[in-house]
TrEMBL record:
Residues 296-485, 526-717 form the DH domain. Pfam families: CNH, PH_5, RhoGEF. It comes from the Eukaryota. It comes from Jaapia argillacea MUCL 33604. Residues 1-89, 828-855, 1317-1338 are annotated as: Disordered. This is DH domain-containing protein. Residues 34-45, 1322-1338 have a biased composition (Low complexity). GO terms for biological process: intracellular signal transduction. Residues 752-897 form the PH domain. One of its GO terms (molecular function) is guanyl-nucleotide exchange factor activity. SUPFAM superfamilies: DBL homology domain (DH-domain) (SSF48065), PH domain-like (SSF50729). CDD domains: RhoGEF (cd00160).
Length: 1338
């Protein structure tokens, strides 16, 4: 079809948009059906300018010409027949495309507004890939599928499945508006092109006007149209159309060449993508007057403008294809709470770049309009733009590596986002003429690529600029400014990459020009390189610290199944990584300061000293905590690797992580330590290269002092931590003999190892040929342990040779004896020797234990210590040198002294005096006989019992019994003590406060008194009878016990008859006690001949036990009788009993024999289902059934428990030399209270606090009752002199009566420092030790 002149309404529009030189050739042929059956008379004249209805176009690859062959009216003759054959060929070829071009039935999709252009539907996206909008046949199919049909009335007649002219134009507009906007800049509101296409389809009878009026289609609703196959009454099945409208919309055609792109059009002269050359837009006479250099210059300038236009369009597409769809997506693709953050992290300030380049493009347009057709100056425009670019481009390009990483991470972790990128955005991008370019990575890198082109283009313009043109200077300055901008952007990229990717290898000389380096003084390049290394090293260090979280911590927490058991995971992470987050925060702040200095002063940095010095002052405390903790972290890793195969596999996998640099976990956590040393080396080198007069000549030495000081301050902490790790290793490798294991609390975080070393011991037999034993002593802050090391498979085990000695019970004896030759060991017993079961050493590889000959005259230096416990004694050991013996003495003195100081602040019980000078006994040197108590001599005899109570008026009193009677007085007031009962041989007393009864066992007889008779609380009670009720018959009561059983207060006393124990259970009679305030006055009682009949108690039950009994304890519902058979658990209702512990198991034969040989002294509940049975030498745990409940069968007491007291949750064992306090749940020793002739006079029974029971989690949740529950007595060390009869004097010993009051542990605010220990000696809260209680006589 030739382009003929006609008077259509859009002829001018056609000439401008459809007949432009760049839009006259289609990219492909329309393979639609032949149009020979269509009559050309139906074509509106105006349509010929818009649509070319023949698909027979010839496009010559050589680019010489593209001559469209226009269709003409069919004429008879050969030429027409030839053309008809071609059309039939096209028809046959069309058959292969019918699946793509067939009309779709019942597809009446409404055209909704798309995210990008009006009218696009998501349903159409797959078809867009196969649609060529330049072909009329393709648009016809789209119109058929998408035009909205409905019932329209025309001339009073309703037409179903009809549509209006506006419907047709709107549908076509929705299909082609994107192409028009992108290729020609035509607004989406301009519908003229769509109207021309609609008239072309009307002319080919693709649809018809229902009244067949022949009017030209208008963009309105006046006319109604229908498709031929939509007529009323037609078949439901749509007949397939054999012919489709054909034609080419020239303004929408594309180039056929697959290598043709917008930036690089193909060689064809008439290629639609080939932009109009600048030389074609100016008059020829002006062009001929210009020199070739100016023509070339103007061509480059216009090319720059063209590229700037395309660049701005690409940035627009970033917003339309990525940012807006993400913000408008429903349902949201990314969590709305972090949507803005993700968009900022990925796209950064790319929209700011767009605004900068839009302003640049606008300035270029202004310059083009002002100076057209020849642009005289352009350098000043780019110079101004470079200044504006400096505020935006470095930020974007520096952030680019992080943006790409964030994009990949989000795509990996967010499947919907990945689908959006890979499917949604690419599908939209397919509509773009150059879909190959629409890739997220391409667009993210587009600003960087575009910025790199500016210097090349500006230098090309400058090269073509004539001499004398002022623009040359502007171009030169603009080129240099943009190059500097690139350098700053490269620096930003280097900073953001954090030593990852290609920028990791950059050095200072890579970021500056050769000319700049040569212009500097000789030493300055090296100095700048070192400063650059400081920054680069800090970046690498911060990244490694942050990788703690990503490489190790997060995978450990998220592992399924768990690599480390959940109950240990938090503790492991805390021990290994400790306070690394503090280091990350401090060094991230330092790095930001260094980066800021680098950005401001690059390429010539003056100094980094101030920033680093400020950082050191801030992170000093963090390093003082982290560095000393490293040995502990290393130990935890080694321990986990040795015992957890899954963790070992995990660490090996972490080493293969690219960010791990092939370093294992231990190397990673050690990273902060060498980093501190690196600062010292770097700044020392900087100082060497700093010229005289520079500020760093004074500042750097100050920084070096701070760095070295920090290193020295961490050394004591590291030493202390190494000692702690060494302690843990010893704990893991200690080997006890079967049944002799002791919980020394070595894993306590405050435990410390004071000293270790080798000592010698003389042979046990006393003969030199039996060999000297070599021992390895471990001196902890709570125990001294003698061991024999044995090595096997590279691991040294320490076999405990003797029972560990608590430092509380360790006494230093002699360190001054002269040296002794080894050969003089024949009769070593003459010097005193080792006692109480010394065990001969067993030889082992690596331990010197071979027999020594008499010729061995090497001297050894003896020293001795005494173990004050039950299984202790004198230990004589030998050091190989005199300095070694002296060192042992110093270390032992330090250990004992420090323990006393620390433990004094952490006592479980505090001793408070009840009476210090009231109760006296004759001194041993006074003779075998001593006078009884009298006002003259004041001797009271031995104190045997006590009990606290409150009177009716609330006075706190205490009753103390002794050989000469019972004294009552105020607590803690010795002067108030008065004797109220003149009884002999008082051994036991108790109070029934509910009934006002005082029970006392004197001379094996049990009496009951009214408390009011002893301590009147009112004038009326002073007349209360003091006559007691005797509860037993003959003088044969051994002991009694008071308790509550099933809500009843009972008194049980025991009489001994032969080997049997006879028990009587009494119950108070409340009515008789209250009514009979005075005793019956019979004749015999008045003269003291016989007691009155007891009416205060009634006999509840009698029973006997065929064994000797020592005590009786009330349980919840039963009683426990402590006898020679063990612990007899009896029910008073049916008198059935069970003996515990159970001894039926043959494996417990040895334990059973030991139980029979020892005396039971107490039974206490350790948990809801467990009891601690206490014998005089040991304790053991049993369950409710009396079976052993723990693997370690026995807990050996340090002393011999004459009596045991109970203050929940502590058991107090009274030896004559000390009280040992142990926790009932663990059996661990928590305190030693030394004394002289110690005795328990009240064990807590009868008090309300002792009836408490443990909760589900043990005793800890109940806490400790702060009331005193235990009374004791000890002899004062120094005797006193009392006046006797006549001129004689009596030497007596005062008895110190005291109560044990619980204390709240007070932990030391600062670690203690010993003379030879580092400042980091840790505090301890293990067994507290009270000082010797030796109150002076007053």
């Amino acid at each position: 079809m030739t382009s003929t002149s006609s008077s259509t309404p859009f002829s001018d529009f056609d000439r401008v948009l459809f007949s432009s030189p760049t839009s006259t050739v289609p990219t492909s042929l329309d393979r639609g059906d032949s149009t020979s059956s269509y009559n050309s008379s139906y074509f509106p004249s105006g349509a010929e300018h818009t649509i070319r209805h023949d698909a027979s176009y010839q496009a010559h690859p050589d680019g010489d010409a593209r001559t469209p062959t226009t269709p003409s009216q069919p004429e008879p003759g050969p030429s027409h027949q030839h053309q008809h054959r071609h059309q039939n060929e096209y028809t046959r070829q069309l058959e292969t495309f019918k699946p793509k071009l067939e009309l779709h039935e019942d597809v009446v999709d409404d055209y909704d507004d798309d995210l990008y252009f009006d009218g696009e539907s998501e349903d159409s996206e797959p078809e867009d890939r196969f649609v060529n909008f330049a072909l009329v046949s393709h648009l016809a199919v789209r119109l058929r599928d998408r035009v909205p049909r409905g019932t329209h009335v025309k001339g009073g007649i309703p037409y179903p499945r009809a549509f209006t002219g506006k419907d047709i134009v709107s549908t076509i507009q929705s299909q082609i508006q994107r192409e028009l906007l992108i290729n020609h800049g035509i607004s989406t509101n301009d519908r003229r092109a769509a109207l021309q296409v609609a008239r072309s389809l009307q002319s080919q009878l693709f649809f018809y006007e229902v009244e067949w009026g022949g009017r030209v289609l208008q963009d309105g609703v006046e006319d109604v149209y229908m498709f031929l196959d939509d007529q009323e009454g037609g078949s439901e099945a749509r007949p397939e159309m054999e012919e489709l409208p054909t034609g080419v919309i020239t303004m929408l055609t594309k180039c056929y060449s697959p290598s043709c792109t917008e930036e690089d059009p193909c060689y064809a002269y008439a290629c639609p993508r080939r932009a109009e050359e600048w030389s074609q837009t100016i008059p020829p006479e002006i062009l001929r007057s210009l020199p070739e250099s100016e023509i070339s210059r103007q061509t480059i300038i216009h090319k720059v403008i063209s590229k700037e236009e395309q660049y701005c369009e690409d940035l627009d597409i970033v917003e339309s294809l990525f940012i807006k769809p993400l913000r408008n997506a429903s349902p949201p693709i990314i969590d709305p709470a972090r949507l803005d953050e993700v968009i900022d992290e990925i796209f950064g300030n790319i929209l700011d770049l767009r605004e900068c380049n839009r302003r640049l493009l606008e300035n270029l347009y202004v310059r083009q309009r002002e100076q057209a057709p020849i642009i005289q100056r352009i350098g000043d425009v780019f110079l101004g733009a470079a200044a504006e670019f400096r505020l935006a481009y470095p930020i974007y390009m520096g952030h680019l590596p992080l943006a790409e990483k964030k994009m990949r991470d989000e795509m990996e972790n967010n499947l919907e986002f990945r689908m959006f990128i890979e499917v949604g955005c690419y599908r939209q991008a397919a509509r773009h003429p150059d879909s190959r370019r629409l890739d997220w990575k391409h667009f993210l890198n587009r600003p960087s690529e575009h910025l790199q082109k500016y210097p090349v283009l500006l230098e090309a313009i400058q090269h073509e600029t004539a001499e004398g043109n002022a623009d040359a200077d502007f171009l030169k300055e603009a080129t240099q400014a943009i190059k500097n901008l690139q350098s700053v952007a490269q620096l930003r990229t280097f900073q953001s990459a954090m030593c990852k990717g290609p920028t990791a290898k950059l050095e200072w000389h890579n970021l500056v020009s050769e000319e700049f380096r040569l212009s500097l003084p000789k030493k300055e390049p090296k100095r700048q390189s070192i400063l650059f290394e400081v920054i680069k090293g800090e970046m690498s260090y911060v990244r490694d610290l942050e990788n703690f979280e990503f490489i190790f911590i997060k995978p450990l927490r998220s592992a399924d199944p768990p690599i480390i058991p959940p109950e240990r995971l938090d503790s492991f992470i805390s021990d290994v990584f400790h306070n690394y987050k503090e280091l990350v925060a401090h060094h991230r702040k330092l790095l930001e300061a260094l980066h800021e200095i680098q950005r401001e002063e690059h390429p010539l940095i003056r100094s980094l000293t101030a920033a680093v010095l400020d950082a050191f002052l801030n992170f000093r405390d963090a390093y003082l905590e982290y560095v000393p903790h490293y040995p502990i972290a290393s130990y935890r890793i080694d321990d986990e690797l040795a015992n957890n195969p899954a963790f070992k596999t995990f660490v090996e996998e972490c080493v293969r992580n690219p960010d791990a640099h092939k370093l294992d976990m231990k190397s990673f956590i050690m990273r902060p330590i060498p980093r501190l040393l690196r600062y010292d080396l770097l700044f020392t080198s900087i100082l060497d290269e700093t010229p005289p007069g520079h500020d760093d000549r004074q500042a750097v030495p100050q920084l070096l002092e701070v760095i070295k000081a920090l290193g020295k301050e961490t050394e004591p902490g590291v030493t202390s931590a190494k000692q702690k790790v060494e302690l843990w290793r010893y704990n893991a490798n200690l080997v006890f003999k079967p049944g002799e294991a002791i919980d020394m609390d070595l894993l306590n975080e405050n435990r410390s190892l004071i000293h270790t070393g080798k000592v010698l011991r003389q042979p046990d037999t006393g003969f030199e040929w039996s060999g000297w034993s070599e021992l390895f002593i471990l001196l902890f802050d709570n125990y001294m342990v003698m061991t024999k090391p044995r090595e096997k498979d590279g691991v040294t085990k320490y076999h405990v040779n003797r029972r560990p000695i608590p430092l509380d019970l360790l006494t230093l004896v002699n360190f001054n004896d002269p040296p002794t030759p080894r050969s003089t060991g024949l009769l070593r017993g003459l010097r005193g020797g080792e006692k109480h079961g010394d065990t001969p050493g067993v030889t082992s590889p690596g331990v010197a234990n071979s027999p020594e000959t008499s010729s061995d005259a090497r001297a050894v230096y003896p020293w001795s210590v005494h173990h004050n416990g039950r299984m202790g004694g004198l230990n004589i050991l030998y050091a190989e040198t005199a300095p070694s013996r002296l060192e042992w003495k110093q270390k032992l003195e330090e250990a004992i002294g420090l323990r006393k100081v620390v433990q004094e602040s952490n006592k479980v019980f505090e001793v408070e005096t009840l009476s210090a000078d009231t109760f006296l006994i004759p001194s041993i040197g006074a003779g075998t006989t001593s006078p009884s108590w009298s006002h003259e001599n004041s001797l009271t005899g031995k104190v045997t019992c006590s009990v606290p109570f409150n009177t009716a008026d609330g006075r706190p009193l205490v009753a103390i019994g002794c050989a000469e009677g019972v004294w009552i007085g105020f607590r803690h007031d010795s002067k108030s003590m008065r004797r109220v009962l003149h009884l002999k041989m008082v051994t036991q007393c108790a109070i029934l406060e509910e009934f006002g009864i005082f029970l006392v066992l004197a001379d094996k007889s049990l009496f009951a008194y009214h408390i009011e008779a002893l301590v009147p609380s009112s004038p009326q009670s002073a007349h209360t009878s003091q006559t007691p009720q005797k509860l037993s018959g003959n003088r044969d009561v051994q002991f009694f016990s008071v308790g509550n059983l099933a809500g009843r207060i009972l008194v049980i006393y025991m009489k001994k008859k032969g080997l049997e124990s006879i028990f009587r259970v009494l119950e108070p009679v409340v009515a008789n006690i209250n009514d009979r305030t005075r005793a019956p006055m019979s004749l015999g009682s008045r003269f003291g001949l016989r007691p009155g009949k007891s009416e205060w108690f009634r006999v509840y039950r009698d029973f006997f036990l065929p064994s000797e009994s020592f005590d009786l304890i009330f349980l919840k519902a039963k009683i426990a009788i402590l006898c020679t058979r063990g612990f007899e658990i009896m029910d008073l209702i049916d008198l059935k009993s069970t003996t515990v512990p159970q001894r039926d198991d043959a494996r417990l034969e040895k334990l059973a024999k030991r139980c029979e040989s020892c005396k039971p002294v107490g039974m206490f509940r350790s948990s809801e289902d467990e009891f601690l049975l206490c014998y005089d030498e040991f304790g053991l745990y049993v369950d409710r059934h009396g079976d052993l409940s723990r693997a370690i069968n026995t807990i050996e007491w340090e002393g011999t428990a004459e009596r045991v007291a109970w203050h929940p949750p502590y058991v107090l064992l009274f030896d004559t030399r000390f009280i040992e306090v142990r926790h009932v749940e663990t059996g661990r020793l928590v305190q030693i209270i030394p004394g002289n002739d110690l005795r328990c006079i009240w064990d807590g029974r009868g008090s309300h606090g002792n009836t408490s029971t443990p909760g589900p989690d043990g005793w800890q949740e109940n806490g400790v009752n702060q009331d005193a529950k235990v009374h004791g007595v000890m002899n004062v060390a120094e005797p006193v002199t009392l006046p006797g009869t006549g001129n004689k004097t009596i030497r007596a010993v005062a008895q110190h009566v005291f109560e044990l009051v619980p204390t709240v542990p007070l932990y030391l605010p600062e670690p203690l420092t010993s003379p030879s220990q580092p400042a980091y000696f840790p505090q301890s809260n293990s067994p507290p030790h009270s000082p010797n209680l030796n109150p002076q006589w007053r």
